[in-house]
């Protein structure tokens, strides 16, 4: 039986306004604009955080190795290069990078405009067990990745706009289930409920509204809506429709009935 408090939970709503200015992210020189849209303390699943970030032309988000988390970079606007284990790959709106445990990644702005992207970071299963005070159970070891041109790579690049959705299980060992882009035609509606999984959506274009926990919030580009376990939302598109980035993370031990 679910707890009454969980059943009454509403959505977490944030947008990209009021971002912080941070210098030297991951050891790189220069400025990064950053804002946390949802974090682990507000959710039941093994999220670390849902974040928005941006760097100016010529800026770099420094290369770093993932040892305890798995992470998504999704490009929203601008042009740049993903740096994956020392190799540069083009990054443009719709580009998606899945970075697994053991991989090294970074991001460079090579364009003339600001480069904006979403970051979704999840705890690897062994990390999640330690944070719960448990001895890590045996998990699939994907830290060695695959070999490409003599380098070990545990990452995947995708064009999410072309593919529509991506199954991250080929790289990630944790509970992230799906990543995709969905659209609502003008006047269309969609219901989301976090019962055995938690959802986060980010408005890419268009406008609309969401009703959650008796509260109605407007949806415009740059708005994030995250549903903790037990929360639900009815999303409706206005006359210009809605385009949403959507990620879903399973929470099998805390299902809400």
UniProtKB/TrEMBL annotation:
Coiled coil: none annotated. Pfam families: Cupin_2. InterPro entries: Cupin_2 (IPR013096), GPI/OXD (IPR051610), RmlC-like_jellyroll (IPR014710), RmlC_Cupin_sf (IPR011051). Keywords: Metal-binding. Residues 54-120 form the Cupin type-2 domain. This is Cupin domain-containing protein. It comes from Streptomyces gamaensis.
């Amino acid at each position: 039986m679910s707890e009454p408090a969980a059943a009454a939970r509403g959505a977490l709503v944030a947008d990209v306004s009021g971002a912080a200015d941070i210098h030297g992210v991951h050891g790189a020189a220069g400025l990064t604009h950053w804002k946390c849209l949802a974090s682990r303390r507000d959710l039941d699943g093994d999220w670390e955080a849902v974040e928005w970030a941006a760097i100016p032309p010529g800026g770099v988000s420094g290369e770093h190795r993932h040892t305890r988390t798995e992470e998504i970079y999704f490009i929203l606007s601008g042009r740049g290069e993903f740096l994956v284990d020392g190799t540069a790959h083009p990054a443009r709106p719709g580009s998606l990078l899945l970075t697994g445990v053991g991989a090294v990644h970074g991001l460079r702005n090579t364009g003339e405009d600001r480069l904006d992207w979403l970051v979704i970071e999840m705890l690897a299963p062994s990390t999640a067990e330690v944070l719960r005070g448990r001895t890590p159970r045996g998990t699939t070891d994907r830290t060695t990745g695959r070999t490409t041109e003599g380098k070990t790579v545990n990452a995947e690049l995708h064009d999410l706009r072309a593919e529509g959705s991506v199954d991250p299980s080929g790289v990630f060992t944790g509970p992230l289930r799906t990543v995709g882009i969905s659209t609502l035609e003008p006047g269309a509606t969609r219901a989301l409920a976090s019962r055995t999984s938690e959802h986060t959506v980010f408005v890419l274009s268009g406008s609309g509204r969401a009703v959650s926990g008796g509260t109605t919030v407007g949806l415009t580009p740059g708005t994030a809506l995250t549903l903790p376990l037990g929360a639900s939302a009815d999303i409706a598109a206005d006359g210009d429709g809605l385009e949403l980035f959507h990620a879903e993370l399973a929470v099998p031990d805390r299902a809400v009935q």
